[in-house]
Amino acid sequence: MGVLNIIGGILMVLASIGIMLAVVLQESPKGGGLNALSGGDSYYSKNQGRTMDAMLVKVTKVLAVVFFVVTVGVSFMNK
User: Fold this and answer.
1) Global pTM value
2) Half-sphere exposure (CA, 13 Å, Cβ side) for 17?
3) Domain ranges in the chain?
4) Alpha helix segments (H runs only) across 26-51
């Protein structure tokens, strides 16, 4: 096991912990369903980019991409 594999493993663990924390900290939808599919134009949906929940969604997406890229990279290093 090389140094790059160890660093990749540490990055995957940190990214997965970050994803779990970001998902747990997000608020559940108030309507009981998926807000993205409701299609309603409310004041909350217009200003969603400024809320803490929107920031957590962005962080979750970035960490998921980091996790995917590191996983693919480590997979190719093992071959």
Assistant:
1) 0.70
2) 6
3) 1-23+52-79
4) 43-46
